[in-house]
Amino acid sequence: MSENLIEFNNISKFFGKVIALKDVTMKLKKGEIMCLLGDNGAGKSTLIKTLAGVHKPDEGEIVIEGKKTVFDSPKDALDMGIGTVYQDLALVPLMSVTRNFFMGREPLKGPPFLKTFDIEKANQIAAERMGQIGIDVRDPSQAVGTMSGGERQCLAISRAIYFGAKVLVLDEPTSALGVHQASMVLKYVVKAASQGLAVILITHNVHHAYPVGNSFTVLNRGKSLGTFNKKDISREELLGMMAGGEELDKLEVELEEMNRLNS
Amino acid sequence: MSDKAKSIASKKTSGQDERLKEVSKLRLLLNRPELGAVGGAILVFIFFGIVAGDTGMFSAYGTLNFLDVSANLGIIAIAAAMLMIGGEFDLSIGSMIGFAGICIAIPAIYWGWPLWVSIIFAFAMAVLVGYFNGILVVRTGLPSFIVTLAMLFILRGATLAITRLITGRTQVPGLRVLIENDPIAWMFATDTFKWLFTWLGSMNLIALRTDGTPLATGIPPSVIWFIAATLFATWILMKTRYGNWIFASGGDKNGATNVGVPVGRVKISLFIGTAVAATIFATIQVLDAGSADTMRGNLKELEAIAAAVVGGCLLTGGYGSAIGAAFGALIFGTVSMGIFYTDVDTDWFKVFLGAMMLIAVVFNNYIRKRVTESK
Question: How far is it, in rounded angstroms, from Cα A221 to Cα A200?
C-alpha cells in the first residue's frame, strides 16, 4: 500500500447535525493528477480544508507515505508536504512578484537580531522559478497586479512547490480564467505532476479536468460516488454524475449543444 | 516565415535583456509611491525660492525654523504612514501627544519623580495605549477608524480631567529647570552641531544676535529624530521580513494569514509605533516649551494622515513609503512657515493643505490603477 503517496481512508466530517463529508476515500500516487469533481455544496470546500489541516476529520484516517498522520493545524499539513493553493491565491496585487513569492517565509541574511530580508537572493529565486514555468518575469520587483490571472495562478502553484509541497491541492485553479489562461495553468499542473508531485485538482469544470486528470473522484452531497480511472469513464458520464441523475437528460441536451459549438 | 514572425523570433532569442530595457527608468520611477511628494516638495521650494527668496526664509535661522516644524510633523507622519501601509488608521495620535505631555509633566512636577523616570513612564503609557488600540482592532475586527476615534475622545478627555484634578489648571509649567543634568532629557532637548553654527557665526556667514552669538544655535532635536525615524522606517519597510509583513497585512489580510504572516501581531506593533511616535513628538515639544498643555497635539492626527497620503500611502493599505511621508511633512512644514514670508494671509494655509491632499489622493488612485491593472 505504501506506493500511494497519500491516502484518505473513510474520512467523515460533521458540523453539528450536518454531515459535510461521509466515508470519502481517495488514494494518490506520485505523478498522479486526481480531479475532485462536485457541484456547489458537494463538500469540496470541507474536503480541501481537511486536506489543508484546517479541519480535523471526525472519522477515518489520513495516511502519508504509509504513515498514519493527524494534522493539528494548517502548518502541520504544510510540514507534511501538503501544499494548498486556495482560490484567492493569497497574493497581494500591490506587492512585487518577489515579495509575494516569499510572503511569510522571507529568506534572511546578516547577524542575529539584525537579520535583513535577502532581497537579492529572493529576486533571483523568484525570477528563476517563474522562468521554469515559462513566465518571463521582466523584473521580479514588478507588482503582481500587472500579471495575468493565469500567471498569478502559476505563481501561487510555483510558490507552493518551492516551499516543499509533495501533494498539491489546487482549489478551482481555472474557474476565473479564460481558455488560453486556463490551458496555461493546466499545462503547468501536468508538468508539476510529471516531476513527481501528486496533484488534487478541485473543480466543477469537467472540460478542464478531463484532459489532464488520471483519475476522477466525484463528490455529491458529502459522499464520494467513487473514483474512476480515465479509461473507465467518459466526460459525459462524469458530468452526469456530478449533477445528479435527474438532471442528466437536461444536461445531455446542453452538452450536445456545447459539443456542437466546440467542434 | 513572415517578417513579423521573424522579428518576434529574433526578440525571443536575444533573451531577457531585450525585455528589461522596455521598462524605462522613468516608468520605474513613476511606480514609486513617494514620487508625488518629492515632486511636490521641489515645486514648493521653487515657489518660495521665487516668492520669498530674499526675505530670510532660507537663511540658516529661517531654514531651521521650517525644518523644525516639518520634522515634528514628520515624526508622527512616518508612524502614521507605516500603520496605513499595514492597513489601519490611528486617529488618537493627537490626543496621545497631549496625554504623553502630562504623563511627563505631572509626575515630574507634582510627584517629584526625576524627569527621566517621567519620560520613561510616558513611553510605557504609549506602549500600553498603542497595544490597547491594536488589540481592540484586531480582536473585534471593527474598523480602526471607529476604535481610534473613540480613543481620541477618551484620551483627550482623560488628559484634561486628570490634569485639572491634580493641578487645578490645564497647563503644567516649570519643566525647563529639570532638563539640566538629566540622563535622558538631553536626547529630546539638545541642539546638535552647535560648534558648526558658532563657527559659521564667527565667520559672519550666518546672522548674529546683538551679543555676537549666532541666531540659529544648532540643529534642533526634532530634525535629528525625524531623520533617524525616516531612515529606520525605510530600512524596516524595504529591508526586513517584518517590513514585508507590513505590506502583506495591509495588502491582503486573509492572503497574508494563509501564508503564515502573523497579521494581528504586525498591526498591534504598528499601533504601538504611532503612540510611541506621538510621545517622541510630545517629549520634544514639552521640553522645548518647558510646559505641558492638555490641548497639545490637537488635530495633529489629521495632519499626520494628510502628510502620509501626500507621501503616497493608499487609504486602503498595502502601499506607501516612509520617505514619501517625510516629504509630505516637509511640504506642509515648509508651506506653513513659508506663508509668513509672503504677502498671503496665513488663513489660507488650511486651504492649501486640503487642496494638496485632494490632488494627492487623485494622483495615488491613478498610480494604484497603473500598478494593479497595467496589463
Answer: 19
